[in-house]
Amino acid sequence: MTNTKFRPRFSRKLLAIPYGLFLGFFVVVPLLIIVYYAFTDANGKFTFENLVIFFSGSGGDSFFQTARFKTILQSLFISFTSTIVCLLIAYPIAYIIANCKLKNKFGLLLLFIVPMWVNFVLRINALKELLEWIGIYNKPGWNIFNTVLGMVYDFLPFMILPIYTTIIKIDKSYLEAAKDLGATPAKAFVKVTLPLSKAGIMSGISMVFLPSMTNYVVSNYMTFNHTKIIGSFIDECFRNDLWNIGSVTALLLLTLMFLITWATGGFSTESETNTRGTSLW
């Protein structure tokens, strides 16, 4: 008989175990805790009263009744404005970098990536000091502007990178075919480049719109806590021992994020999104 040595088989699937444990402890468990508090009352009994309070405004704490709708509308306005401004700035930048003749395009991209390496609190404090030097920090009428400016300053690279990645992958033969068929550069951009870059646009929108609704550190620093967004509202609920109301608000926000991501094709592959984008445009 031949003597064969036992060799243990190693499966690459085992590499997913640490990642699965991390997701379980730091994502699934906290989410289950939020769900528990969202559907229970102060005595721990199952109830839908928290949802009724959120949508009707009846009952609950006076702080919650007076703050919720104003905060939600203000958050939506700030998020929408920040996303539009980021898109208007990011798309031309990503397009220019992707189509420039330089061999080292990544060097230009680094100009927008390097600030992300600096500590977030330091960057926001630097911007706050700049606004204070100009004279518009903590001034009535400037708080919304300062908040949007802080959001754009913080999230602009997250809009540039996905758009740049999508544009640089576009097959140049499509543009050449459009020009051969008589399309002007502007028409080729509208009919070819813009539809094929929709995946990057949608990815950038989801990476800016959703976090800017919850990043209350920016709004607190840029307005001296005078501008409230949904993230700061949830934080105040927890700090005022309104765990049930804060949890149901967080859960509804999570559901909104899921629906927006699903509607914008965030769960689709890049090829599927490009195909749908081309047909829609």
Describe this structure in words.
The structure is a single chain. The chain is mainly α. It has 13 helices and no strands. The chain has helices at 16-38, 49-56, 62-99, 105-117, 120-134, 143-168, 172-180, 185-196, 198-212, 216-223, 230-239, 243-263, 270-280. Helix 3 (62-99) packs parallel to helix 6, helix 4 (105-117) runs antiparallel to helix 6 (143-168) and helix 6 runs antiparallel to helix 9. The chain is globular, with a radius of gyration of 24 Å. The N and C termini lie far apart (70 Å). Mean pLDDT is 83; it is low at 275-281.
What's the short story on this structure?
With 281 residues, the chain is mainly alpha-helical. Helix content is 74%, strand content 0%.
Describe the sheet with the most strands: none
Spatial extent as radius of gyration: 24 Å
| First-to-last CA distance | 70 Å
Net shape:
globular
The overall pLDDT, averaged over residues, is 83
Poorly predicted segments: 275-281
Task: Please report the number of helical segments.
Answer: 13
Reading the helices and strands in chain order gives: HHHHHHHHHHHHH
Helix content: over 70%
Task: State the total count of DSSP E strands.
Answer: 0
What would you call the structural class?
Answer: mainly alpha
Which percent band covers the strand fraction?
under 5%
